[in-house]
Amino acid sequence: MTKRIVVVVSGRGSNFQAIIGALQRGAIPADCVALVTDNPKAYAIERANAAKIPVVIVDYGAYATRELYEQALLAALKEQNPDLVVLAGYMRILGSAIVREYAGKMINIHPALLPSFTGLHAQRQALEHGVKLAGCTVHFVDESLDGGPIILQRCVRVLDDDDEDTLANRILIQEHIALPEAVRLFCEDRLTIEGRSVKVRM
Ligand code: GAR
Q1: Going by CA atoms, what residue is nearest to atom 2 of ligand 1?
Q2: Which residues lie with the beta carbon below 6 Å from any ligand 1 atom?
Q3: Residue 165's pLDDT is what?
Q4: Which of 38, 69, 86, 100 is most exposed, with minimal Cβ within 10 Å?
Q5: DSSP annotation string for the chain
Q6: Domain 3-200 sits in CATH 2.40.50.180
Q7: What is the pLDDT of residues 131-152, one digit of tens each?
Q8: Is 110 a catalytic residue?
């Protein structure tokens, strides 16, 4: 059956665009039923409008407390009745009520080869550490910071003359392959979580 996916972003939305492209090519058996964002100025909103995907704005700045914001976000997600929630550049830490509600049904893309370099500025952390390989990870979301079971990873070489932007751009190209692929695998029911591992049925 066609899955209902909701994509959650905070900004530019190039990973969201990669998902839209894959949906439009028929590469993923799903409908994107909404884009949800915490940022009314997110460029991703224009991408959703162009693709005729409904937009739900849960403006972080409009809530008096983080708890109230989280309640509103959870309500907005529930209203969409999603089979899968995709965090595609969502730049806040999710509260445990949302994570628990969507256990096994929520995935995130992170611009590092986890478990290295969690949190913000992952590409800068990789450069500062002097690693020779960097990359991206798509993982299920649990209550740890970027620590849930890994679905897939793609890597790039770190070049001697890389700066944060050049490395981030090279990783982003791989993100745009990895995230739609992970969404497809989920929507085709090919993923099984076994402890810390995700088995992928071919
Ligand atoms: C991407 O590089 C994504 O991996 C990263 O934010 C960027 C969003 O770009 N996410 C995180 O750092 C989450 N911790 P996009 O809006 O163009 O897809």
Answers
A1: 111
A2: 9, 11-15, 88-89, 91, 109-111, 122, 172, 175
A3: 98
A4: 100
A5: -PEEEEEEESS--HHHHHHHHHHHTT-SSEEEEEEEES-TT-THHHHHHHTT--EEE--GGG-SSHHHHHHHHHHHHHHH--SEEEESS--SPPPHHHHHHTTTSEEEEESS-TTSS-SS-HHHHHHHHT-SEEEEEEEE--SSTT-SPEEEEEEEEPPTT--HHHHHHHHHHHHHHHHHHHHHHHHTT-EEEETTEEEE--
A6: no
A7: 999 999 999 999 999 999 999 9
A8: yes
CA of residue 173 to ligand 1 center, whole Å = 12
Candidates 96, 84, 92; CA nearest to 182 is 84
> What is residue 156's predicted lDDT score, i.e. its pLDDT?
98
d(CA 119, CA 145): 7
**What's the one-letter identity of residue 36?**
V
Domain coordinates in residue numbering, the chain = 3-200
Amino acid letter, residue 33: V
